[in-house]
Amino acid sequence: MSYQVLEIANPARLSVRDSQLVIERDGFLPFVTPACDIHTLLLANPQITLTQGVIASLTEAGAAVVMIGPTFLPLAMMLPLQNHTLQTERLARQVALSVVARKRLWTQIVRAKITAQGSLLKEFSGTDAGLLPMAQRIRSGDPDNFEAQAARIYWRRIFADAKFRRGADASESGLDQNRHLDYGYTVLRAAVARSICAAGLHPSLGLRHHNRYDPFCLASDLMEPFRPLIDRRVSLWLKEHDPGSPLDSAAKRWLIQGVTMRYWLLREERTLSDILTAVAVSLAGVMAGERKTLFLPEGLQPCQEDLTSRRTDVCG
User: Fold this and answer.
1) Pairing state of beta strands 268-271 and 301-302?
2) Each residue's pLDDT tens digit, 115-156
3) Three-class DSSP category at 199
4) What angle is formed at CA 200 by the lines to CA 197 and CA 201, rounded to 5 degrees?
5) Concatenated DSSP letters for 213-244?
6) DSSP codes of every residue in 141-193
7) Cα(156)–Cα(153) distance, rounded to whole angstroms?
C-alpha cells in the first residue's frame, strides 16, 4: 500500500530507474524511493524537469501527481485511470445517477461536514456553537444552505479570530491562516481524487460541485467532511507558531501528516487513504444500487503516535 506524500519545492531533475523514483538536486546526493510507495507527488517549483516516462511510471504505480502554484493551490493533477477492472461500467452508472440520489448524497455529506466542524469546535473550546443540532436539521439537498450558515459560525471560532475570512489573501487582523489551509486542502484533495479513481469512478463528475473549469468536482464533494482534519492541524500549528511566518518545510510536513497519519476507526488504526478509499467504494455501491448511503465515519481521531511521519518528505 502506497502512503508516502512527497513534495519537491526546489529545482530538481526526476527520473525512474529500476522502478525507483530518483530525485537529483545540485549540491545534494540523489534521493531514491520506490515508485510504488508514493501516494502523492507534489511539484512545487517551476524548475523541476521530468519526462513522460516518470509520470507514466508513477501513475501506473497508483500515485497522484500534482502541480502546485505560487499560492499553494493545485494547477493540475494527473491520476491513474486504469487501475479498476469495472471502470467503464462504473463510469456509466456515475453519469446516470439521478438528481434525487445526488441530493440525498449531498445531504449526507453536508451533515457529516457540519458534524465534524461542531465536534472540532467542542474539542477546542468546549462548545459546538450550535453546529451539532444544526446538522440534524438539514433537508434533502440542503435548500436552506446550512453549509454556509455553519461556515460563518465555524470560521469565526476555530482560530479565535472574529475577523477571519476563508478564501481571502489574509484576514483583516493580519493573520494568514489561508495559506496553511490551502496547502493542506491541496494534499487532501489529491488523496480523495486518487481514492475516487481507485474505486473506478471519475473525479470530474460531481454530486454538487459542477464548475466547468474544475476537473475534480467529485473530489471537491467527497473531501468536505474531511476538511476539519486539516483545520485541526492548522489550528494546532498556529497555536505554537506565528501565522505570519513563511509556510516552510516544517509547516508543510505538519500539514501533510494530517493526510498520511493514522486515525482510529472502529477501534482500529487506519490510514486516511484506506478510509477515503472505503468512502469512494461506498459511493460506487450507491451508484450500483447496492446500498443507499455513503460510508462517512464520524469522530475520526488521530492515533497517539504518527506512524508515517518518517515517510513524509519535503525536498527543499
Assistant:
1) unpaired
2) 999 999 999 999 999 999 999 999 998 999 999 999 999 999
3) coil
4) 70
5) T-TTHHHHHHTGGGHHHHHHHHHHHHHHS-TT
6) T-TT-HHHHHHHHHHHHHTT-TT--TTSSS-TTS--HHHHHHHHHHHHHHHHH
7) 6
Cell digits of residue 252: 508543510
With contact defined as beta carbons under 8 Å apart, do 270 and 213 qualify?
A: no
Q: State the Cα–Cα distance between residues 225 and 298, nearest whole angstrom.
A: 9
Spatial distance between the Cα atoms of 131 and 109, rounded to a whole number of angstroms: 14
C-alpha cell read off for 75: 494547477
Residue 89, judged by CB atoms within 10 A of its CB (0-12, 13-18, 19+), counts as middle
Separation in Å, CA 283 to CA 128, 169, 289, 291: 29, 34, 10, 9
**Nearest CA among 218, 202, 183 for reference residue 5:** 183
- pTM comes to 0.81
The residues near 254 (Cβ < 8 Å, ≥ 6 apart) are 233, 237
In which element (H, E) is residue 121 found? helix 99-125
- For residues 1 and 63, is the Cβ–Cβ distance under 8 A? no
